[in-house]
Design goal:
This protein is an alpha+beta fold. The protein has helices at residues 14-31, 35-39, 59-68, 91-97, 111-116, 189-199, 292-302, 318-323, 362-371, 407-417, and strands at 73-82, 121-130, 134-140, 145-151, 154-159, 164-169, 175-176, 179-180, 204-214, 217-226, 233-241, 247-254, 262-270, 288-291, 331-334, 341-345, 372-377, 380-385, 391-395, 399-403.
Length: 418
Amino acid sequence: MAPNDSVETNGGTRGTAVGRRKAARYIVPVAVAGVAAATIGLVPALASTGDPDLPKITAQQLIEKIAASDAQQFSGTVKISTDLGIPSLGGLAGSFAQGGGSGKGDSGADPQEKMTELTSGTHTLRVAADGPDKQRVSILDSAAEYSLIRNGDQVWAYDSGSNEAYHATEDGSGKKAGHPAPESVPTTPKALAEQVLKAAGPTTSVTVDGTARVAGRDAYKLVVKPRQSGSTIGSFTVAVDAKNGVPLKFTLLASSGGKAVVDAGFTKVDFGKPAASSFTFTPPKGTKVTEADDAKAQRKTDGDKGPGMFPGAEGLGAGGLGAGAEGGKDTKVIGEGWNAIAEIRTPGGTGLPSKASGDVPAEAQQFLDALGDKVSGKFGSGTVFKTRLVNALMTDDGKVYVGAVTPDALVKAANDAA
């Protein structure tokens, strides 16, 4: 029998397309900001071959095993499938991430655009790592491949479909021009598990719930659940390699039930040293290459800053929401644990533009109306945008209340703050 040791720890038309793109500039920061960091994951095509019989282990011991894992070399094949309950935005979400436009500084290989596509649908990936300075993530489809590669301080992204490349040199902190290196993108179960375990605290229950076989390897199942009611998060399950402590599978369930919001895991994995060629890249002949510095300067010249991420929204990942987000100067956190709500003041202190104001095309307004519900209270009026994981209330006076909580909890928070 598999061990079942439970230990709780404190732990159609051009006009329509343009309208949808403009609408995406308004909805993406509400519906996707904080969802991407929390839900970009990998889905296994896993066939169960029977639960392995492994020695019993406590939740604390399993967490320590994850923390002590020193496996820095691996390669494998994974899939990503995310069901947030929102329409697929595709490149619209990416256009927001770049500042919302098709200006001269934009590149079809920009990592922020391509990696944001992982927030919906199903994708196949190849991943590889050789220590902290060499990583590669490739997104595969039937006609093209997109790769994000880091080798030392050099970061390359290449889209074979458009034959475009994006190049950045890191500044020593792992960042350049606001664009991610591969290791900063949570595209492995380990990265996702670390976010969740960082959030564990007094409002969290952590247990061991049996064993599993993942990508041909024996694993323990660690289950993390909020102990509070009112959260949209039902549970996280992490399958941990019994031998080396590496998370192999990650599944996120919503408290409302239904299929997994994120179901993440390797389909094939090898913990040997990857080939050095995995981390080298030379742009093919005829490739359009965009330098990060040039793109940034061009966007500044064009004045194409776009709406930008809501201040403090970068703190709304799994760790931020679960452990009490540390927002920016325009962000205040209400509540604690998994029920934490971030109150964010939007740039300029204004709410969503309306059709009546002439700022939003009819097609864009229709798109927004389809995603949001009008609400009112002591705070005045506003619109609630809903996903299966993160909900957000944007008031007409320019405040946003966002969290992995129910819409009713957001309205209550806004009323209490009025």
